[in-house]
Design a protein that fits this description.
This protein has 184 residues and is of the alpha+beta class. The protein has a single domain, classed as 2,3-Dihydroxybiphenyl 1,2-Dioxygenase, domain 1, CATH 3.10.180.10. It has a 10-stranded mixed sheet with strand order 2-5-6-1-7-10-9-8-3-4. It is globular. It starts with 22 loop residues before the first strand and ends in a 10-residue tail after the last helix.
């Protein structure tokens, strides 16, 4: 039986390990990245957005444990502390297209940095009994990203991103042309 906390008491759960660092981004699944980016920019002053098309070969990815090939369109806008990521599936089956079919547009995941090598990070999650929904390796297989099957556990999907120091996330965060209203 757990001891009741006293008023003003603080505790850390779990006290013995941390797997996740500060969140780097939140991702919203959309039907049209460019249209949604324009809406965020014009209505809410979020942006500018960098739009990026990414084709992933079957040799680098899997969805639900099955090798997959797909093309995605991303939109990234940096705020003061976090990146807003918009994603659209252009071609192929992805966890995004599954999400869109089941829930419609909406918040897909929260992304966290994790330490390479990528396979070792995936094994740590596996030892905790947490599988993957989608896995994407970089050309250098020490790096990649994965959506962990955490929806039923914590109420959202967690993405782990294992990239080299000053990988494309840092490049995005440091880019002068991405200074939005919060980073003048």
């Amino acid at each position: 039986m757990q001891r009741r906390m006293k008023d003003g008491e603080t505790k850390i759960i779990p006290a013995d390990r941390l797997l996740l660092s500060d969140p780097t981004h939140v991702c919203v699944v959309v039907r049209d990245v460019e249209k949604t980016a324009q809406t965020y920019a014009s209505l809410f002053g979020v942006g500018p957005f960098v739009i990026r098309l990414m084709k992933t070969p079957r040799s680098h990815a899997s969805v639900g444990g099955v090798p997959a090939e797909y093309t995605l369109k991303f939109g990234y806008a940096r705020t003061s502390t976090i990146t807003l990521e918009l994603v659209e599936t252009v071609e192929g089956r992805t966890s995004y297209s599954d999400f869109l079919e089941k829930h419609g547009e909406g918040l897909h995941h929260i992304g966290y940095r994790a330490s390479p090598p990528f396979d070792e990070e995936l094994r740590r999650w596996e030892r905790l009994g947490i599988g993957t929904l989608q896995v994407n390796y970089r050309d250098d297989k020490r790096y990649g990203w994965a959506y962990m099957d955490t929806q039923a556990i914590v109420g959202s999907i967690i993405e782990i991103v294992c990239d080299p120091a000053l990988g494309w996330w840092e490049s995005l965060a440091l880019a002068n042309d991405l200074k939005g209203p919060m980073n003048k």
